[in-house]
Amino acid sequence: MRKRILAVLLIVVMVLGLISCGEKKEDLTGKWIGEDEYFELYSDGTGIVTSLDDDGNEETSYAITWIAENGRLKITFDLGMLGTISSAADYELSKSTLICTFDDDGTTEEYHRE
């Protein structure tokens, strides 16, 4: 009986270990500041992107929706009467630094969490 209980406990521990090895969802919510823009990502999948002029002043803002999965970030911009446009990037998150490599032109941008 005691061996059976130990065997069951071992199986439970192994299953929990395998589950915990699954991919973690990284928290990208918050304000991210880059060289030419900053964006705020909210936990409900919405946000705002604001472009900055050469002096660092706010220039244009757009409402967005976003999703991040498996190291990919997809942002859809709401352009009002002009419709929507989407952009996707591979991303790496390290502490408070987010590095995005965008699909459309291959550029890499670095953002820092405020």
Structure in words:
There is one protein chain. By secondary structure, the chain is an alpha+beta fold. The longest helix is centred in the first third of the chain and has 19 residues, at 2-20. The protein has one helix at 2-20; strands spanning 30-33, 37-41, 46-52, 58-69, 72-78, 84-94, 97-102, 108-113. The chain has one domain: Lipocalin, CATH 2.40.128.280. The chain has 1 helix and 8 strands, in the order H-E-E-E-E-E-E-E-E.
Supply the number of helical segments.
1
Distance separating the two termini? 56 Å
Measured by DSSP, the beta-strand proportion falls in over 45%
- How would the global form be characterised? globular
As a whole number of angstroms, the C-alpha radius of gyration is: 20 Å
CATH architecture: Beta Barrel
Q: Determine and state the CATH class.
A: Mainly Beta
Report the order of strands and helices: HEEEEEEEE
Number of domains: 1
What topology, given as strand order, has the largest sheet?
1-2-3-4-5-6-7-8
What is the number of strand segments? 8
Q: Which regions have little confidence, pLDDT < 50, spanning 5+ residues?
A: 1-24
Q: Roughly how much helix do the residues carry, as a percent range?
A: 10-25%
Class per helix and strand makeup: alpha+beta
Average predicted local confidence, pLDDT: 82
CATH topology: Lipocalin
Please describe the biggest sheet, giving its number of strands, its sense, and whether it closes into a barrel: 8 strands, antiparallel, barrel
